Amino acid sequence: xxxxxxxxxxxxxxxxxxxxxxxxxxxxxxxxxxxxxxxxxxxxxxxxxxxxxxxxxxxxxxxxxxxxxxxxxxxxxxxxxxxxxxxxxxxxxxxxxxxxxxxxxxxxxxxxxxxxxxxxxxxxxxxxxxxxxxxxxxxxxxxxxxxxxxxxxxxxxxxxxxxxxxxxxxxxxxxxxxxxxxxxxxxxxxxxxxxxxxxxxxxxxxxxxxxxxxxxxxxxxxxxxxxxxxxxxxxxxxxxxxxxxxxxxxxxxxxxxxxxxxxxxxxxxxxxxxxxxxxxxxxxxxxxxxxxxxxxxxxxxxxxxxxxxxxxxxxxxxxxxxxxxxxxxx
Length: 330
Prior knowledge:
1% of the residues lie in helices and 46% in strands. The chain has one helix at residues 293-296, and strands at residues 14-15, 29-37, 42-49, 66-73, 78-84, 95-104, 107-115, 127-133, 140-145, 152-159, 165-171, 177-183, 190-191, 196-199, 203-210, 213-219, 224-229, 236-241, 256-263, 266-273, 299-308, 311-313, 321-322. The strands form six sheets. Strands 2-3-4-5 form a four-stranded antiparallel sheet, with no helix packed on it. A four-stranded antiparallel sheet has the order 6-7-8-9, with no helix packed on it. Strands 10-11-12-13 form a four-stranded antiparallel sheet, with no helix packed on it. Strand 4 and strand 5 (78-84) form a beta hairpin. It starts with 13 loop residues before the first strand and ends in an 8-residue tail after the last strand.
């Protein structure tokens, strides 16, 4: 969730720890989204809780996931695990991936991938589930959003100046292309049949406004691709960020699917890593068809985003000052 033109209530500066967060229950934190909890007056991190500490065949650890919550302290330096959300609307052990949360007219809206059951190989019908909440703990299942297929993941939402909401997402039925849908009220959606970035395969789009442009970051499985736009319709492809390892602990091989928070004139990208892998998409099964724990686990990191020479860059190899300030409710 991108937070733009907010008012700072406090500003405590410090160097960002690395990793920023590891899940203390399953050690599989991925796909973070940052949410300002208006009631608690704290930043919350909602994320896919991969079951990295589970010894099971294939990619089982990426299924049967809950959406977990970590609470931010010390201006984002410390994150405390609080538990998982109860999103069940049917029986069985099922799968949730990549939450996106926006706040509109007193209500939080979550759009999260839902896959029935648990699998050991990639597959299953992936639908975008819509939930609402007044306080981020108790969620009401609204239904599934009708989009370009039932193989969709990784929603990113933004409200445009005319009040229209846009949702960008990945459609695996269209060669992993990034698609877009629009809504006036977050409940009824109309989708566009044309990919917004061409047929290039990528995932985890994140759209936000910063420094007089709209930006989209996408996960290319080798870092994040930067796109720039004046209208959030026509996108100019730019370079990669987070595409190599840094010297920080757990900050390799690069940055994967994350979120961006913009507070006044500063922007931060939150992302996850696979510290035990040489490349994100490469893991090595043993003779029993199980990936080793070192290649299953994942960590959350944060890095600065800076506008330079007409594009976005991110240098996290050197120490940087990091502060995620409290916000005044709007």
